[in-house]
Design a protein that fits this description.
5-stranded mixed beta sheet, homodimer, 313 residues, 13 strands, alpha/beta, 10 helices
Chain lengths: 313, 313
């Protein structure tokens, strides 16, 4: 038997057939259509295509899992709201896919799917209690308790990015102020660098972005950092403080076996984790006498969406 | 069959026989002895006494549960550290009680015990996902996931008071800065009132504490508040903001069915919860479109320690 995992994104949709060992045997990708109806039709075609090209029948498919970039209700199968996809509000999604294929369908958000993938096949394999932060444009969270994904009421828990780091601080996309996301997302890191650049015209960051502040991105920032630019180092040290304090909070709340960092910034690997681990060690991982929490970066990156979605089945 | 619950405190130790329905059939209390050895001996005598006075035999006791005011390891049965009890460090506790009575022994911290009591027999009865905050000298936390107490690695999770509200803010007893505990414990509330009193000599709080700032306590503060003192109202409104923002964090992290507030301050009941609920409603309980989280005060108060400890069995 096989499962199918579908990773829904604002620009493209990736689907893959996954075998029992968590390996993708075939994957296909299509651009994301503009309306929910057109999108759902294209997803159904994509899955049919995938099954056909894999020389399988639906009898050999145990179920189909989906990871969405936004708010969904995994119990009802309804997509509540996708901030970056037009008109995706209160869409009764799972039933449409079930009707088309007659197999079990499960949905979750993308951070949850990624967390599940890492726990089943990646950096947190075998761990029973896992917390994951995805550091991208926003900051997503995933929580595994006793080997199972914990989603909370209406699947609206594990929103770890939306927890206070500085009460009344930077405005967050969620409407609150001072959330972790407002300090440790890629967007926040870039904004922190831009602020510092305005006060320091000598930084190599200026030449790296051709004296145009607007072109600064994560890639340029980490190039400067790895070249030893003082300003980039200063900004990164402050970023590490923000992120580590957030991690210490989740150590105290969950005391998991392992914390996994995913998303764009996690590609920095040990540049990131060495500093975080030092910070957390100096702070006794939140609580004197408490067990250390292993802190690692995600290992599945690109395929995690498909693998995690398939693992819902 | 019966269970026994023992509530260990810095000044007294309370033990009770609890029946299947969670009712205490008999309870006894002794002062807390000065050393761990003397204390353990007195606990064994207390339990023997309790069994005898209940006309029971150890065959009728299913097990004995203990709630401790500090850090314990529920898996190993070792008491790691009790901040307010001398020499309680790394004490192999459970095995000693097991040897004395030949029955199952379980230990946890007092906030966990209280949370379990509320979920089994109190304000959160029947709920599967519960988060509790105990607002006392410190701020404890308890988490029930899928009907089971969640303690984390080495029982060092659910330390909900030690999560950042204001990065770099007020010093917390745990060594970090800006923890929720440093803003919403009774101690913190009293300190906030004292600070404001120094700037406002007209507050009724001054006469209520005979012009001696050092005598201000929770009882005096809430008397002034309930009498409509403007300064007390101002301090309380700020306190509600701190506490509500902490609660919103736990809504986003756990999205539990219910949040329970315990500890001294929770005796204020609706004076406390009405304001918190209004604050959380105005903030969409942390996330627009997410289910509301029921917010209540604990109902078992005095007996919660015994009942919760017995419920470990």
């Amino acid at each position: 038997m096989y499962t199918i995992g579908v990773d829904i994104g604002g620009t493209s949709i990736k689907a893959g057939v996954v075998d029992k060992s968590g390996k993708i045997t075939l994957s296909l990708q299509i651009p994301t259509k503009n309306s929910p109806n057109a999108c759902i039709e294209s997803i159904i075609s994509l899955i049919k295509d995938l099954i056909e090209k894999s020389n399988l029948t639906t009898n050999q498919i145990k179920g189909i899992g989906f990871g969405f970039p936004g708010m969904v209700n995994s119990k009802t199968g309804v997509v509540d709201f996708l901030p970056n996809m037009k008109d995706w509000e209160n869409i009764d999604f799972s039933s449409k896919i079930e009707n088309a294929f007659g197999v079990k369908v499960k949905i979750t958000n993308d951070a949850n799917a990624h967390t599940l993938a890492e726990q089943k096949y990646g950096s947190a394999k075998g761990a029973k209690n896992v917390v994951m932060l995805t550091l991208g444009t926003g900051v997503g969270g995933g929580v595994i308790i006793d080997g199972k994904l914990y989603e909370g009421e209406g699947s609206k828990g594990a929103e770890l990015g939306h927890t206070t780091l500085i009460l009344g601080g930077n405005k967050c996309g969620c409407g609150r102020k001072g959330c972790l996301e407002a300090y440790v997302s890629t967007t926040a890191l870039i904004n922190q660098a831009k602020e510092q650049m305005l006060e320091n015209k000598e930084s190599a960051l200026w030449s790296l972005c051709n004296n145009d502040l607007a072109t600064l991105n994560g890639k340029i920032f980490f190039t400067a950092l790895n070249n030893g630019d003082k300003l980039a180092e200063k900004v990164f040290d402050k970023y590490i403080e923000y992120l580590s304090e957030g991690i210490l909070n989740f150590c105290n709340i969950f005391r998991p076996e392992i914390m996994v960092l995913g998303g764009g910034i996690s590609a920095q690997g040990k540049v990131l984790t060495d500093k975080i681990i030092k910070y957390c060690e100096d702070s006794y991982y939140g609580l004197k006498g408490a067990p250390k929490v292993k802190i690692v970066t995600a290992t599945l990156s690109n395929d995690a969406g498909i693998i995690g979605a398939s693992a819902l089945i």
